[in-house]
From TrEMBL:
UniProt keyword annotations, A-Z: Hydrolase
Protein name per Swiss-Prot or TrEMBL: amidase
Enzyme Commission code(s) on record: 3.5.1.4
Reaction catalyzed: a monocarboxylic acid amide + H2O = a monocarboxylate + NH4(+)
Leading EC class: hydrolase
GO molecular function: amidase activity
Keyword Thylakoid: no
Keyword Signal carried by entry: no
Family: Belongs to the amidase family.
Lineage: Eukaryota, Fungi, Dikarya, Basidiomycota, Agaricomycotina
Length: 439
């Protein structure tokens, strides 16, 4: 595996070693954002998240590989090369926090910090069979961490944990929030960790929950191991006494269109500027090379369109109250973490299953369920497809080639529901394990 930069510091080595994606600054250490033109740059300060982790006793010992400038779903760049998946080196580790996913998958780290603007914590966690969490905007402080397209705050990148254990999600969030990060980052809401919310005070105290399963998003049908994972999860939840209904996806194609338009709204100015420092070629696929710099009035229209979309999506969720026996809207949505099983290197990844959560600012976890098994995850013939993404995803699936690659699911909750989503993920994870133990 390429790119694990050991950081030599004078910090006390008495706590949990935590790895960092190569955008989290630690004073006096090299960081590059995986751009060739940034070689030799040293951080002049600590990112707020690094400052908090150090004060809480963490040992920050290495940085990990990521996609060039954060912009696509692999741990790959012209500076450090490619990070591969430790379960199957023929397939991607995901990205952009790919190095974090691979290192933790190898148990070279037990907990690390990645970032997520379209799935960049969740997809690497999913592709290495880990737990991860994409919280709502700025709940984990982002201040003084470096980012691409600085100032683009329509759909904001967030920092979040990837970890080998579901307990790591709560440990990370509670430790960071106990440090009162709103006193250090002006964007962080004044929301201390809440045991009340963790104990599902707004979800019937967790006594009987209703989960909605998104079998597909209406644009791209997930690969066979995801269907198997969803079916197993449904049976486990029913056996545990919970209710399960089907989720009707809400205008998924429009969500993808809006978020990709936001990403491309500067016409690629930021990445072109960084690449020009060295003349290195652009990699990846999320940024349209033909995108134009969007005039302010068009950007305002796009922002207004997003606002209307997320309001309609909220209404769509709230309307599920008529489907449940609890009288509440569904407590969470369970979805695949991706449409594709961990795919071949340098191939396009459909981001619709993760990106809609970033657009709506939904708190979303990822948890491991299964791995690609060629004996049961058979590729059935298909003649009709929902979209070009659906056809591309179908063609990319090769169960023998992708043998052993992890496939994971998400628990999608509401905005600023980090405590509840962690607890809901624990409940789903425990239900699956109990059902397996019983059989």
């Amino acid at each position: 595996m390429h790119r694990m930069q050991i950081m030599t510091t004078s910090f006390s080595h008495s706590g949990l070693p935590i790895s960092l994606k190569d955008q989290v600054e630690v004073e006096g250490t090299n960081f590059t954002m995986c751009y060739v033109g940034w070689v030799g740059k040293k951080a002049e300060h600590n990112a707020i998240i690094a400052e908090i982790l150090l004060k809480q006793g963490a040992v920050l010992y290495c940085r990990t590989n990521m996609s060039q400038g954060l912009w696509f779903g692999e741990g790959y760049n012209n500076l450090f090369g490619r990070t591969t998946n430790p379960y199957n080196r023929n397939v991607t580790c995901g990205g952009s926090s790919g190095g974090e996913g691979a290192l933790i998958g190898l148990r070279g780290s037990l907990l690390g910090v990645g970032s997520d603007i379209g799935g960049s914590v969740r997809i690497p966690a999913a592709y290495q069979g880990l737990y991860g969490l994409r919280g709502s905007y700025a709940r984990i402080p982002y201040s003084k961490a470096t980012n691409s397209s600085e100032g683009q705050e329509i759909v904001r990148s967030v920092l979040g944990p990837l970890t080998v254990s579901i307990d790591g999600l709560k440990l990370f969030y509670k430790s960071v929030l106990d440090a009162r990060p709103w006193n250090l980052d002006p964007w962080t809401p004044r929301m201390p960790w809440s045991e009340e919310r963790y104990n599902l005070s707004e979800h019937g105290e967790g006594n009987k929950l209703c989960f909605a399963i998104m079998w597909d998003d209406g644009v791209c049908i997930p690969a066979p191991p995801y269907k198997r994972a969803l079916e197993e999860t449904k049976k486990a939840l029913l056996a545990a006494g919970h209710e399960v209904v089907d989720w009707v996806p809400f205008k998924s194609a429009e969500a993808v269109e809006i978020i990709t338009s936001i990403w491309n709204s500067d016409g690629g100015h930021d990445i072109k500027k960084q690449l020009a420092l060295s003349g290195e070629p652009q990699l990846g696929y999320n940024l349209d090379p033909n995108a134009r710099d969007m005039p302010a009035h068009e950007l305002f229209d796009l922002c207004f369109r997003r606002t209307n979309y997320i309001k309609s999506a909220l209404d769509h969720w709230n309307a599920t109250a008529i489907q449940t026996s609890t009288g509440r809207p569904v407590d969470a949505i369970i979805t695949p973490a991706s449409a594709c099983a961990p795919q071949q290197h340098d191939t396009t990844m459909y981001l619709g299953y993760t990106g809609f959560c970033n657009l709506m600012d939904y708190t979303t976890s990822v948890f491991p369920v299964t791995k690609v098994d060629p004996k049961v995850d058979i590729k059935e013939p298909r003649e009709k497809f929902l979209s070009t993404d659906d056809k591309r995803n179908y063609d990319a699936y090769d169960p023998e080639f992708q043998r052993g690659a992890p496939c994971s699911l998400q628990v999608v909750g509401g905005k600023y529901e980090e405590e509840a989503v962690i607890k809901l993920t624990e409940i789903v994870d425990a239900a699956i394990k109990a059902k397996r133990a019983a059989t």
